# Entry
Amino acid sequence: MKLLAKAWRALRAPFAQTRRETELEAEVRHHLELETEANVGRGLSPEEARRAALVTFGGVDQAKEDCRESWAGRFLEVLGQDVRYGLRGLRRSPGFTAAVVVTLGLGIGANTAVFSLVNGVLLKPLPYARGEQLVVVRQPDTHAGQADLGFSPLEVKDYRSMARTLDGFVEYHSMDFTLLGGGDPRRVRAGVVSWNFFDVLEVRPALGRSFRSDDEQEGADAVLILSHEYWRELGGDASIVGRRFEMNDRVHTVVGVLPPIPQYPQENDVYMPATACPFRARLVNNRQGRLLSAFGRVAPGVSVAQAQADVDAVSSRLRASYPDAFPREARPHVQLSLLKEDLVRGARPLFLVLLATVGLVLLIACANVANLTLARLLERSRELAIRSALGAGRARLLRQLLTESTIVALAGGVLGLALAFAARGVLTTFAARLTPRAGEVQIDGSVLLFTLVTSVLTGILAGVLPGLPGRDRIAETLVAENGRSTGDRRKHRMRTGLVAWQLALSFVLLIGASLALRTFLNLRHVDAGFHGERVLSARVNLNFTAYGDAEHRIDAEKVAAFNRSMEDQIRQRAGVVAIGAAWTFPLNNQFRNDGTFRIEGRGDGTGVPPKGTFIGVSPSYFEALGVPVLRGRAFEERDRQGGEGAVIVNERLARRHWKDEDPVGRRISGDGGGTWRTIVGVVGDVRQQALDVEYTDTVYLPFREFPGYAYTLFVRTLDDPARAAETVRGAGRRADPQAAITSVRTLDDIRSETLSPPRQVSVLLSLFAVLALIITAAGLSGLIAYSVSQRTQEIGIRMALGADRGRITTMILREGMTSVAAGLLLGIVGALALSRLVSGLLYGVGPTDVYCYAGSAIVLLGAAAAACFLPARRATAVSPMIALRAQA
# Structure
């Protein structure tokens, strides 16, 4: 209570200033009157008595000041005085103020923007209740090199009943379906989940209700829950609950809408109960049908390690009970990982590198501001010396200077906050490519607090670095003309050291930017194995209920008829060269269809079989994409169901397993020897996943024999392929009004989108590096300019004695480049020490690449030389007589 009372008095003090001054004046006057009366009683005249009282009392003003120091709220009063005095001083130096505010604004703005990214993605708790208990459950097989085998419906049921340490075990998988109702057919991504999926996540719908157990009962009405984003796409109608759509030949009723939360493991448009998925129904009694992902919630009071031991025990029991559920060579195990960590696994290294980068930029900005402040201190040395001589202590002077530096830092923070607001959209788009949590990037209270703390700490750092003149320099400062001291070597060494550190940090940033740029350029020149110029791609999505039988097996002839109808219409357009189709498109990192195969005549199947990626393609696929057929032939119309069973392999697979032999005519089996297929051709390698992922062994199957409900169509044209987009859409509508044609884009667009993350990283790092270089060059130029101004008389004497301008310029450049050499050496050491942090983000270049180091050094030396040359050139342009007269 005493502390609260004291705080209350301190807060009220500024508002009682007049009353307290009146009371203080009355009290002092009363003491003087008492002392005067006593002196009169001793026989002094009233005038002498008054004078003696003043002498005995001491200085009235000093006494009042001593009393004021004991008042509650004195700190706030003095702070207000410092702020007002600082604002007046900064207003008298608009150039200095603007330079500092802009410099710190850029540094703080970069840090605020990147911190908002890190805070929203890495630091915030999950937007689920008790999100720290949520785990992702995987079943990897490291022996076979598979990251996750997945779970079958029967395995999910077993783990749900046998894992005692998990408070809920739910399944998930995603399928694309055609949604009918309300306009053109829409292709939606449907999350197929356990009825209690959202209960385990503890997510309540924003509208309507969640799934119930009876929604999974046989014969139950089909229901949907919409994601918040898809609900917005449909118009954001608050009365959408109860609306009906047709999907999979069934009428589905919307029962709820999710709140705006990140979806995991991927964004979905709609959600449906697990038993409503027609494809899952075919696997419900198949223990080897591992289509599903799984999630769980660790029970209260149970650690992840304890839960891991529990599911390990369950896994061992299941393998012992069902030995035929896995291939003989499989060595699966169950792995738990926290959902929060899994959400940001791919984004964490890059975001931390960006945070470290902007931290370096801010340090460079602080060093530059410290240099500017130091130069201003030298100009204000006479003022500070006078205040010190009048009794102001070093603490009082330091407090004033810290107040001024904090004021400009806070102004820089406001500017930085505005810059962060402007950059938030770009950063959110960038983060969305790496994590589902990008939607949580906001300028919220945490970010505002970070900006405030960063601004205050920056102001304190920039204010403390320059230091204060010692009392032993007061006399020298007072007698020096214009308040300048001619021999402050300590300050000069400090400024030189600050510039050297700026140069070192700038060099580290230049190295990082050059490595990122080299990575991007290397990826740009990667041979993806196809020629995407003038090729349009479109995703064709068929309503499987119209192209399958009662058991949901696809009817190859119906799909072929639809495809022929589309191709015939597209070929009527002038300029069409070739039309192909495939299950997927190149550089699609979402596509996974890996499997094992056996080679006829090799082994008995007891070892680990070779793996490959299986892709179904049409006869004209390789022609449409410009993939060369190296041996044998491409697929033909005869390669269909009932044909000879043809396959095509890529060059990498052929070289790995047959070396210099011709694999054409050899046979392989993808079902353990049950069916053998003949290799009819060898084609060039294509990067199926990403530009930075090496070629994989690929087995191509005939699309006529293995069609898909959803596939990609490729159209090669002689003119701009984008012009054929409407032709493709129209052909799809006419061939089947229920077919959804989506993702119409060129292959060049796909490649450009793949390059977007490394391009954005290189641009961001380059911007930060250039910003740091500009700040550093300005600081170096200011250092040389100040040094030249202090040596004006010396330069005049040298020129009067015959030194030409070139020699003077060389002398000044030599002095500046000494700092550059020291900074470059420190920068090389720092870059080598930090090289491991970025090694995982590089492609085709090492973290100690000689060319990057040499190029960065050349850029730094060039910028530094230009920064030194300008003030040196201005110094030599002054007449020797004028220079001598300036110091006379």
Remarks:
- Confidence is low (pLDDT under 50) at residues 481-487.
- The two ends are 66 Å apart (CA to CA).
- The chain has 27 helices and 22 strands.
- The longest helix spans residues 747-790.
